[in-house]
Specification:
There is one protein chain. By secondary structure, this protein is α+β, with helices and mostly antiparallel strands. It has one domain (2-189): FAS1 domain, CATH 2.30.180.10. It is built from 7 helices and 7 strands, in the order ααβααβαβββββαα. It has a 7-stranded mixed β-sheet with strand order 2-1-7-6-5-4-3. β5 (90-94) and β6 form a beta hairpin. α2 packs parallel to α7 and α3 packs across α7.
Length: 190
C-alpha cells in the first residue's frame, strides 16, 4: 500500500532526520476499515503520512508540550495537523474528528519513536468533523445526525457509497498501517 501510493519514499526520506509515528492496533484498524476502504489512493497515502511527524518527540516532550503538530501529510494545499494535549501522565491527540490516547511506546531509539494509540487519527481534510451540539438543536435531531452513516463517511464520499460488506477492507487497513510500522522498523534496523 505504501509503495504504490509513494508514502514509503516520504518515510524513508524522513527517518534519518527524526520521525515520530503513531500506530493503532488490529482491533482499532478493523473498526476503522469501512472508512478506510472508501478512500482514494492519494487519501490513503495522506492518512498514512498523517500518523507521523517529521521530528523526534519523546514521551517526556509530548507530556510537556500542548499545541498543534504538523504531520508528514502537510503539503502546499492542505495543513494536516492535530493538537497534542497532556494531563499529567496522559497524552491525547485531537483532531476535529476524533480524540485518541497514546497508550504505549513500541520503540524509542532516537531519531525514531513509535507510539501505540487507541484510535486511528482522522484528519478533517479527509473526514467530516464532529459537530458540537448547538443549544438550539434538539437532542433527538443531534443524536440522529451523529448516528447516521454520513457521520462516519470520509469527506467527499456519500453515505450510500460506504458499505459494511466483507471484502477484505479490514485486512487492507491493517496491511496499510502494518506496512507503515514495518517500513519504519526495516529502515531503522537494516
Amino acid at each position: 500500500m505504501l509503495v504504490e501510493t509513494g508514502a514509503d519514499k516520504t518515510f524513508e526520506d524522513n527517518i534519518d532526520g527524526n520521525l515520530t509515528v503513531f500506530c493503532s492496533g488490529d482491533t482499532t484498524l478493523d473498526a476503522f476499515a469501512p472508512k478506510y476502504k472508501n478512500l482514494t489512493k492519494a487519501q490513503k497515502a495522506s492518512l498514512a503520512l498523517y500518523h507521523s511527524v517529521p521530528f523526534y518527540e519523546s514521551m517526556q516532550i509530548l507530556k510537556s508540550n500542548n499545541g498543534l503538530m504538523n504531520t508528514l501529510a502537510t503539503d502546499s494545499t492542505n495543513k494536516y495537523d492535530f493538537t497534542v494535549q497532556n494531563d499529567g501522565e496522559d497524552v491525547t491527540l485531537e483532531t476535529k474528528v476524533v480524540t485518541l490516547k497514546v497508550t504505549g511506546t513500541v520503540i524509542d531509539e532516537d531519531p525514531l519513536v513509535i507510539y501505540k494509540v487507541d484510535k486511528v487519527l482522522q484528519p478533517k481534510e479527509l473526514f467530516k468533523a464532529v459537530a458540537a451540539p448547538t443549544p438550539k438543536a434538539s437532542k433527538g435531531k443531534a443524536a440522529a445526525e451523529a448516528n447516521s452513516p454520513a457521520a462516519d463517511s470520509p469527506r467527499g464520499i456519500s453515505a450510500d457509497q460506504t458499505t459494511d460488506k466483507p471484502n477484505g477492507a479490514g485486512v487492507n487497513a491493517r496491511l496499510g498501517f502494518g506496512l507503515v510500522l514495518g517500513l519504519v522498523l526495516s529502515v531503522v534496523f537494516v
